[in-house]
């Protein structure tokens, strides 16, 4: 490191993260962090039979180790478990989001769960490490600004690698120099392209980010070296992957950690489709109409949506999750977009949905993050509704109820009887648990069906 009186951006960020260890996190941050972990466990366990999860488990089957693979009642090596759990947690694309960077929990939760298990960390330390990891990925995202994502990089993969490294460094008690090296090791591995959205490789991003971040922290603890200003170097991460670098945004003080701004998904599709789903559902609820009544539909979204979730004629359940036309059609027809089972190859092939998709246009002209759905009916009526689900919820008790409902919806029919309620209760009290053993035992029992 150079002049420590005027620290480089990596050092300055690392110091902020290390300072988070000296005081207990704010109660709001702890509550939301536990909600993130509960939500992530729900979507991870629900994805255990997804083809991509099966393939990863088969490929890595037989590895020795004592780290829990959540989607199987068997252990694996630390890094293999992190990879599998990370990919499984993002397999349904039903995990939480944050406007700063993408899917914040997907790369960080696998890291804290696995390292928390092997180190015997208390629940409180695991929660604090999770908060620090999410803080890191959001601050790196703010450093790089919007050009990184616009160019085609997947922030969950790239920023998530730093988040996993920061969380792992917190659990391993890395000092300042070690943390800077960990960031360097993480940054030189960070990758993930948006061109793979709608394929199995998108969930793989989360698993690799988690795995690379954990590896970075463990290597740094051994003395493995890297660029200690990976975020600020002339040929470092920000310089090569952004044209909108903003050091001030990365280091700006906040009253509460970034975790309190996490948004939870209540539709099992890409989050950028949720405004459209909500707007279409509102039209459906407000004015009853049949499929035959709909003459044309126009969806107005921000331009960035076009490269993320604008698959015009989805052929698979996974592609349905990244189709504004299909998710809008589902909502207009009254389908339960909350239900993960809806997003299937059978649904993609339904003639009524395909016909409505063909009568739908997507226009990249929305002036704000909100999306608007216009419906023209055959009797001449024109209906419109605008929706914006990007504002964080501050009623955390109400948010807890919705997340628990989602968890039970995902698990009550597929997990062992009684285990969903047990996992929910254990997550509520996670910050008071001596370790993760009871929670991981409940997850293992849940998948023995």
Structure in words:
- About 50% of the residues lie in helices and about 5% in strands.
- The chain is of the alpha+beta class and about 450 residues long.
- Strand 5 (about 370-375) and strand 6 form a beta hairpin.
- The longest helix is centred in the first third of the chain and has 22 residues, at about 125-145.
- It is globular, with a radius of gyration of 22 Å.
Briefly characterize the structure.
It contains 20 helices and 6 strands. With 449 residues, it is of the alpha+beta class. The longest helix is centred in the first third of the chain and has 22 residues, at 123-144.
Q: Structural class, from secondary structure content?
A: alpha+beta
* Percentage of residues in helical conformation: 40-55%
Oligomeric state of shown chains: single chain
Q: How are helices and strands ordered from N to C?
A: HHHEEHHHHHHHHHHEHHHHEEEHHH
Overall pLDDT metric: 94
Q: How big is the Rg?
A: 22 Å
Total strand count, please? 6
What's the total helix number? 20
Low-confidence stretches: 1-6
Largest sheet: 4 strands, mixed
Termini gap: 53 Å
Strand share of the residues?
5-15%
Q: In what order do the strands lie side by side in the largest sheet?
A: 4-3-5-6
Outline, from the CA principal axes?
globular
């Amino acid at each position: 490191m150079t002049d420590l009186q005027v620290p480089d951006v990596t050092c300055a960020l690392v110091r902020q993260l290390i300072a988070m260890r000296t005081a207990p996190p704010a109660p709001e941050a702890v509550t939301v962090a536990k909600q993130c972990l509960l939500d992530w466990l729900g979507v991870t366990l629900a994805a255990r039979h997804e083809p991509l999860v099966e393939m990863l488990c088969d490929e890595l089957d037989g590895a020795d180790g004592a780290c829990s693979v959540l989607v199987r009642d068997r252990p694996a090596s630390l890094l293999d478990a992190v990879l599998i759990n990370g990919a499984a947690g993002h397999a349904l694309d039903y995990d939480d989001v944050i406007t700063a960077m993408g899917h914040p929990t997907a790369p960080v939760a696998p890291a804290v769960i696995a390292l928390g298990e092997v180190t015997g960390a208390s629940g409180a330390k695991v929660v604090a490490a999770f908060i620090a990891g999410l803080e890191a990925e959001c601050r790196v995202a703010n450093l790089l600004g919007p050009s990184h994502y616009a160019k085609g990089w997947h922030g969950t993969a790239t920023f998530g690698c730093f988040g996993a490294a920061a969380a792992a460094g917190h659990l391993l008690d890395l000092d300042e120099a070690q943390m800077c090296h960990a960031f360097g090791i993480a940054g030189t591995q960070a990758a993930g392209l948006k061109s793979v959205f709608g394929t199995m490789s998108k969930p793989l991003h989360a698993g690799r980010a988690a795995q690379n971040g954990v590896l970075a922290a463990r290597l740094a603890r051994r003395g493995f070296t890297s660029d200690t200003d990976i975020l600020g170097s002339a040929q470092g991460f920000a310089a090569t992957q952004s044209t909108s670098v903003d050091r001030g945004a990365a280091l700006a003080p906040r009253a509460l950690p970034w975790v309190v701004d996490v948004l939870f998904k209540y539709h099992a599709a890409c989050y950028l489709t949720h405004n459209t789903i909500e707007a279409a559902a509102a039209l459906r609820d407000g004015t009853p109409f049949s499929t035959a009544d709909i003459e044309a539909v126009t969806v107005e979204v921000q331009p960035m949506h076009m490269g993320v979730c604008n698959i015009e004629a989805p052929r698979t359940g996974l592609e349905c999750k990244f189709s504004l036309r299909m998710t809008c059609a589902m909502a207009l027809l009254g389908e339960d977009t909350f239900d993960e089972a809806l997003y299937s190859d059978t649904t993609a092939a339904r003639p009524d949905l395909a016909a409505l998709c063909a009568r739908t246009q997507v226009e990249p002209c929305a002036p704000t993050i909100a999306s608007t759905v216009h419906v023209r009916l055959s009797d001449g009526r024109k209906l419109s509704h605008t929706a914006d689900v990007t504002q964080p919820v501050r009623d955390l008790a109400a948010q807890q109820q919705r997340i628990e409902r989602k968890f039970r919806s995902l698990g009550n029919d597929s997990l062992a009887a009684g285990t969903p309620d047990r996992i929910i209760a254990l997550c509520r009290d996670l910050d008071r648990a001596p370790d993760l053993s009871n929670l991981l035992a409940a997850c293992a029992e849940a998948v023995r069906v």
